[in-house]
Design goal:
This protein is 45% helix and 16% strand. The chain is of the alpha+beta class.
């Protein structure tokens, strides 16, 4: 792995160790695939890419790793409408963003050019939900469904 991934390797070992798990070659491969893409990949697509890096990895390892990473809050699972979950690292270089999902072609568009009114509305919504349910919100994931420009 390159420098960025090598630095991340120790961080990931610590995260898994903190959850009472160990970092395996299979887990490291799945994380590497997620780090090296800007796309929202399905488990099958992750598996295909992972096999090129680690021919010994199994599909079950990919699914279990994605489930563990999701439970740890390190991966977001997105529903693109095609009955297959899509995955991205929660703490990606993209920063905080929302998703526009086309219900016709299942494409996912990252949306991060928020305007002041949107930010204000989200902060107020989080504040009111926290008060109403006595719930500490530390993040959110928003998906909007519709039809993309190409499918119109």
């Amino acid at each position: 792995m390159q420098d960025k991934n090598c630095q991340g390797r120790g961080q990931w070992h610590g995260k898994f160790h903190g959850c009472g798990c160990r970092m395996t070659a299979g887990r490291e491969t799945v994380i590497r695939v997620l780090q090296e893409t800007s796309k929202h990949l399905s488990a099958d697509e992750i598996f295909i890419r992972a096999r090129k890096i680690n021919p010994d990895i199994g599909l079950t390892t990919v699914y279990r790793t994605l489930e563990k990473l999701s439970t740890m809050g390190e991966v977001h699972r997105l529903d693109s409408g095609d009955k297959r979950g899509r995955f991205e690292l929660a703490d990606s270089e993209k920063g905080h963003h929302h998703h526009l999902v086309c219900t016709m072609c299942n494409s996912i568009i990252d949306y991060d050019d928020f305007i002041d009114e949107e930010i204000k509305l989200l902060k107020e919504t989080e504040k009111k939900l926290s008060q109403k349910y006595n719930f500490n919100i530390n993040s959110h994931l928003i998906q909007f469904y519709g039809i993309c420009e190409k499918c119109k």
